[in-house]
Amino acid sequence: MSLPLHNRRIALTRAAEQSAGLAVRLSELGALPIICPAVGFALPDDYVSLDQALQRISEYDWLFFTSANAVRFTLERLRQLQIDSTQLEQLDLAVVGPGTARWLAAYGLKARLIAEEYSAEGLLDAIEGIEQAQILLPASDIARTDLAEGLRLRGAYVEQVVAYRTVEGDGCALLAPMMRLGSLDATIFYSPSAVRYLLKGLDRVVGLPEAIPLTNLGAIICIGHTTAAAVQQAGLPVAAIAAEATDDAVITALLQHQNQLGENA
Q: Residues 6 or more apart from 36 whose CB is under 8 A from it?
């Protein structure tokens, strides 16, 4: 009996260090995962704002994390500054998605609030009673300000600081030839920035007029509605959207799409 994703070539556009686990899972299902990161992550250009915020961490009421990278870079910087991480136990911690919650757990911390929808809107919908609350929001240098603005409209005091930089990955050089050969069955996007950087890289390699139809050759699977919107804004169709921000949900969406193709064949 053949495996459900037998010989399916699936491009993983997430940063290389974050794609390994999904690659193993897909391989177990018979797929041929191709790690071709459209994005990467780097230290901020300077730590001034982040350090100032962390040095007075006890003054905040809430700490919001919208990604696993925000958790990783923020808590590593806390450790480098030799600030006692137990101070975070006195704060209310909010995260987007169970994946980010698991990263917190790896540092011995538990989220009070986990937004099921993988977006700023999901956190805003889930939280209540934050009038006058002091909130720290460490994020990427290219992070949107929707969440901070939404929290301020509800009466909170929000400080959004840069904890890390999102940079272009090096996966396009590998991906473009495979796309030209039509050998990809699916491409998985975990973030809007991955969509933007992939198209930017393909534009440089093959030119955007060719990049758009090339990207459309395989099914596009997205981690959430915000990422799906970025794909659609680029003029590309979305084949499936994962129900939550986890590898399990991505695999489920991929398998459901595969089954639909079989039923329509």
A: 11, 12, 13, 169, 171, 172, 174, 175
b/e sequence 95-110, b meaning 16+ C-beta within 10 Å: bbbbbbbebbeeeebe
pTM of the full structure: 0.84
The first and second tokens of residue 14, run together, are 């997430």
Q: How far apart are the first and last CA of the chain?
A: 20
Query: Which string of DSSP letters, residue by residue, matches 190-257?
Result: -SHHHHHHHHHHHHHHT-HHHHHHHHTTSEEEESSHHHHHHHHHTT----EE-SSSSHHHHHHHHHHH
- 232 against 116, higher pLDDT: 232
The arithmetic mean of pLDDT across residues 197-219, rounded, is: 79
Give the whole-number percent of the chain exceeding pLDDT 90: 58
Averaged pLDDT for residues 104-130: 83
DSSP letter assigned to residue 98: H
Instruction: State the chain's mean pLDDT as an integer.
Output: 89
One-letter amino acid of 182: G
Q: How far apart are CA 138 and CA 146, in angstroms?
A: 14
